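Pasting as-is:
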Amino acid sequence: MCYGAITMNNSRMSRPGIVNRNLWLNPYFERIRLLILTLVILSAARPGLTAPGDQQFHLTERVIPIPHPITSLLRSARIHRELNLTPEIITQIEQAADKVDQPLWRLRDLPPDKCNEQARNLIEQLKRRLSQSLTVRQMNRLNQIVWQAQGIEAILEPELAARLGLSTGQNTRIIALLSAGYQRIAEVNLNTQIHSETVRAAYIQRIQTETQQKIIAVLSAAQQNAFGGLIGQPVNLSQVRFVVCKAPEIEAETWINSSPVRLTDLKGKVTVVHFYAFGCGNCIRSLPYYNQWHDHFPSGIFQIVGIHRPETQQERDIDKVKKKASEAGIEYPVAVDNESLMWNAWANRVWPSIYLIDKNGYVRYWWYGELNWQGAESEKYLRSRIQELIEEKS
């Protein structure tokens, strides 16, 4: 089964005192959430979600965004300036983020009833650590910026919902509207007749706008005005980089085409890590694109690393892994993950999967599925993201 992309872009803000009619789910995590729900549809019903009928689902509870936008905000120089932080405090809050963002990221593909409690605990743990370094005023402002980054869905944050006086009925209606919006967007992402990502994005934008308007209509006029005031003066988040977490280190005893490679030794390079199995058809059809990237991008600023995690018993044969890698023209390093150590460390669940890591070792983008599956432009998209990270200043 082929899965779609998870990508990040810029965010939209609202002016204080009103609800901006263009405010929606912040793109930091909106496509993560939408494509996770697409995975849910593809794999049928999962706990926490019900699936009445073919490719239908109903969201039964609020979904905590994973990755959470706070992990990017805490590493942004723009936000550091907004909060007027000293270098010492910046170091402290980044260290606090480092302690929770990787465990949080490992929850990314789980349904709400499996991840919400764990995610909530991790975020609360992070905020407790932050409160030891930030003043009350700085913490309040940070919370406002996080809400701005979440967009219209920040309405469901417990503190905001309480201060807005959301009724149980309003909360239920908002979740139902979000669920319906996710369903429609998932269907767009699954539509193999749409080959252009520009066209796909236009469809998604229209659905988002319609859903947002319906959510706003659930609020009273007083609640709409209060929401804009509670999230505070808008901050331009368009330059905030989407930073998930430090990429898990690659630990493997057996390597092909290389001595052991460690991501910590690749600082200064943009790195692609991809999981595959040599008998997986979707993987086989993606391998030529990885070879093209290996040939196209200069080795001084780019590295690709494959992780072969077997799906079948015959794929555990290391000699066959080497033979198939040679036949596929793979010249870059490949780690053999027969014990699933990397598979588990990355909380990876599908073949093929691709992760883009920036020059500082942080996961920035990832993609589940065969590249250019049924005419999609995924390879072009990821190649552009690689170039973007190469050109980005550290």
